[in-house]
Amino acid sequence: SYVLTQPPSVSVAPGQTARITCGGNNIGSKSVHWYQQKPGQAPVLVVYDDSDRPSGIPERFSGSNSGNTATLTISRVEAGDEADYYCQVWDSSSENWVFGGGTKLTVL
Amino acid sequence: EVQLVESGGGLVQPGRSLRLSCAASGFTFDDYAMHWVRQAPGKGLEWVSGISWNSGSIGYADSVKGRFTISRDNAKNSLYLQMNSLRAEDTALYYCAKESGGGRGAYFDYWGQGTLVTVSS
Questions:
Q1: Which residues does chain A have within 8 Å of residue B44's beta carbon, measured at their own beta carbons?
Q2: Cα–Cα nearest to A23, from A61, A62, A71, A85
Q3: Cross-chain CB nearest to B113 (options A42, A94, A98)
Q4: pLDDT, greater one: B105 or B48
Q5: A82's torsion region: left (phi>0), alpha (psi -120 to 50) or beta?
Q6: Which residues of B49-66 are buried (b: 16+ CB within 10 A; e: fewer)?
Q7: B66-98 per-position pLDDT tens digit
Q8: Cα-Cα-Cα-Cα dihedral of A40, A43, A46, A52, to 10°?
Q9: Pick from B59, B52, B49: which is nearest to B30 by CA?
Q10: Nearest Cα residue to A3 out of A18, A21, A25
């Protein structure tokens, strides 16, 4: 089955840029979606189809996808961005939706 | 406003059954595929099962195939998950999620708050 690999943790100072990666075999050929989950809350979609933002999501959140790596970029990081972030794709071979293991973003 | 409200979770012994429900409102329920996603305590997200708008297409994760059954009642705007032969490793918070995008680009644009299932003797 298809595997998505995320770093367990990323740390960044307020105001700086955080980049969270999601690795997968030829992931650039798939549509990648990103979710933010704060403690005790349900996940929230922050980026879909590699780089589109749902309404209400700040422009500071952006995404890219090429080759074997997709990236969620959070510019001008704020304390409120501290959360777990998950990437997700549809795997046509297994006909399953697949999530990455998640990355905990810490704002220093 | 889209709302998804799960119910039916609880403490159950290994080998027993449980049925989860998800009540949907704020959108045209029978226009969208729906899914169940779970999260074990302190762990990541795991897709469990999905069902198309007309129940014509259904899928399961290998971890639950043959034990769980997803269904929906469009007249009642409700999604269900029948869980049989429960195991300790099924212990998790179960989320109901609405699909959007369609096809290979499908994603989950709304989630409920989840219902907790604990499998223990």
A1: 84, 86, 99-102
A2: A71
A3: A42
A4: B48
A5: beta
A6: bbbebeeeeebbbeebee
A7: 999 999 999 999 999 999 999 999 999 999 999
A8: 180
A9: B52
A10: A25
Per-position b or e across A49-65, b if 16+ CB within 10 A of its CB: ebbbbeeebeebbbbeb
Tokens of residue B108, six digits = 């989950």
Count, residues in chain A:
108
Please list every residue in chain A whose beta carbon sits closer than 8 Å to the beta carbon of residue B61.
96
> Least CB-CB distance to B111: which of A42, A48, A100?
A42
Sequence length of chain B is 121
CB neighbourhood size of A1 (10 A): 9
Interchain contact B111–A (C-beta under 8 A):
yes
B105 close contact with A: CB closer than 8 A:
yes
